[in-house]
């Protein structure tokens, strides 16, 4: 799954990495982004609106859903295109969530050990997501997950869907709506590009939010 991540790269760096025309924006550095908060996303608000980097609520509940409907933070690649809850957003409202890395927890003696996973070259990663207008009229999102690949398998059974640079444009293209077309145009970042290390248990508390959280744990 993907339940916590960090984003501290400045807006200009993200804009350059995206390599797509993007309306001006800004990013507030965060080192412990938790669900149920506003997060940075890249999307087309409404076709043919230009691409923007704005705030999305991390919790997906489409406007037509009941108040008691679930508010998932993740959607699995196995079901996102076919589930009645997600398929409309998958076809028409895909987004990207920029991150510098994400956290995952591995069972260990005495409790779970948190790890930080990121690119070996420390460039930002782009997480595939979907969004929908929520019942309150504001946009909410979920991050797609898949079975873990490469070194990520050492930590957890699942991981966010991380896209390579050539896949960002087709993933965001509102004209692409068919699942098979997307499969042919979108590719994952190579598993060999990822690395990880253990970090402090202080990340367990979302109130803790500072650069030291991504530092390798002592000992």
UniProtKB/TrEMBL annotation:
<keyword id="KW-0227">DNA damage</keyword>
<keyword id="KW-0456">Lyase</keyword>
<dbReference type="GO" id="GO:0008233">
    <property type="term" value="F:peptidase activity"/>
</dbReference>
<dbReference type="GO" id="GO:0016829">
    <property type="term" value="F:lyase activity"/>
</dbReference>
<dbReference type="GO" id="GO:0003697">
    <property type="term" value="F:single-stranded DNA binding"/>
</dbReference>
<comment type="similarity">
    <text>Belongs to the SOS response-associated peptidase family.</text>
</comment>
<protein>
    <recommendedName>
        <fullName>Abasic site processing protein</fullName>
        <ecNumber>3.4.-.-</ecNumber>
    </recommendedName>
</protein>
<dbReference type="InterPro" id="IPR036590">
    <property type="entry name" value="SRAP-like"/>
</dbReference>
<dbReference type="GO" id="GO:0106300">
    <property type="term" value="P:protein-DNA covalent cross-linking repair"/>
</dbReference>
<dbReference type="GO" id="GO:0006508">
    <property type="term" value="P:proteolysis"/>
</dbReference>
<keyword id="KW-0190">Covalent protein-DNA linkage</keyword>
<dbReference type="Pfam" id="PF02586">
    <property type="entry name" value="SRAP"/>
</dbReference>
<dbReference type="InterPro" id="IPR003738">
    <property type="entry name" value="SRAP"/>
</dbReference>
<keyword id="KW-0238">DNA-binding</keyword>
<keyword id="KW-0378">Hydrolase</keyword>
<keyword id="KW-0645">Protease</keyword>
